Amino acid sequence: MELFRALGALLDGPCGENRLIGHLLELGPVPDEPTHNDLFLFQLYPYASAFLGTDGRMGGEARDRVAGFWRALGTTPPEDPDHLRALLGGYAWLVEAQQRGNGKSAQACRDARHAFLWEHLLSWVLPFLTKLRQIAPPFYREWADTLEALLFGESARLGPPTRRPLALREAKPVPDPRRTDGDSFFNALLSPVRSGLVLTRADLARAARDLGFGLRVGERAYILRSMMSQGPRATLDWLACEAGDWAHLHDRGGTTAPEVADFWTHRVTATGRLLSDLSADIGADLDSELGADVQNG
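RE: above sequence
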């Protein structure tokens, strides 16, 4: 179980200890601090709440849910309980608690371990690892492969969940902007659990280049609104294409965790249909409504 802790520690960035861990795990040279910071502080946040929250932001109910798990076990939650390092360390602790226990206590720890694996790790970490492989240097791509192999072993060892994780069951899909406000639409697009998409700042910069738009620096919602104001139909088409790509990417996760991969695949497929429908219906009415909402929002 030390491997879980070691992989979690590598999320902290370059230092002497992590360079040694990277060498021992044969992951290659640890990237420098600017590369690490751009990746995990600016592009792809290693927090469960960033993937399972209603608006793609860190904190909120998604973080509280992890903290509540530890309180239910009579344990003080760690700082930033939904950070992937804390989650991997917590999972290792549960495995060790099961190994130390006997009889009913060991079974209780196994049940907690099973719940933690599906509710707080496999519910979101596969899309995180998929995006990480797309944008990270080789060291973190190897890191992602190692972690996914570990999680595959755990899911096979403990068995599937009796039902989908709570965060997935409760997640609402992207609302139709023809029936709601623009803020709700944009926020949901940037929430992975609601849209099935994982959109980083780098993705939106790529979209702006592909579409020939001016790129405005700011939060992702601001960038997305700017793109919509410059070309609603082109932006919707680009997003629909991304949704199609993500449907294939999520489907590949079925090998490790088919019970959650199915949710992510269906969710992003539904988002893609909505985006394509909006693009097809972008005539004067929708163009003016969305455009006006973007300008006034």
